[in-house]
Amino acid sequence: MADVNALKKLALLGATKGPIQLSSSSFAKRISSSTQTASRRLQALEREGLISRTILPAGGQHITLTENGKDVLRNEYYEYQKIFEPIKNEVVLRGEVITGLGEGQYYMSLEGYRTQFKDKLSFTPYLGTLNLILDDENAVLRKKLNENEGIPIHGFNSQQRTFGGGKCFRATIGEIEGAAIIPDRSHYPDNVLEVIAPKNLRKMLRLKDGDEVSVRVVL
Question: Residue 72 CB: number of other CB atoms within 10 A?
Fold first, then answer.
């Protein structure tokens, strides 16, 4: 099990933003333990792939939280949100426009998906997706989509292939009605949100890579 408290202490020292220089003895004071225990806990975090460490010749070490380590803290943060924040039936996700892998156009062209989107969302999607990269705070909010039922999109067989399913949520981007899609299997990490709409969102909203966009998602 991940040592969340140790990860949190490292994050508070700045290890999510880049390498921090730290000795085992100074870390021991942060976690109220012996130097030997602090050293073992750092070694365990490294073995689990939650931090990366570089031992310095003059003593001490450089420590950085990996993406897996950040994910552990994001999950912890989200659990506390569920405890202390009121339940809402929508979430606003903000992210920067990025160029995707080019697969959205292909998947949106498949009749097995297009028919379902038309039947369930009452629109036929434009051949492509708008892809947004989310910062840490919005990546945590995106987890609410994972835990809500959403509108199911079923997998199907076509062209001697099996295409996976997923779910989607009605969403508004600017004044345009669309949907956020959460595939069961995705080539993107959890901090990327895919959005579809009946129109070319980049063109209609005059978007380019790096522009910030807000998406209001109905849960």
Answer: 21
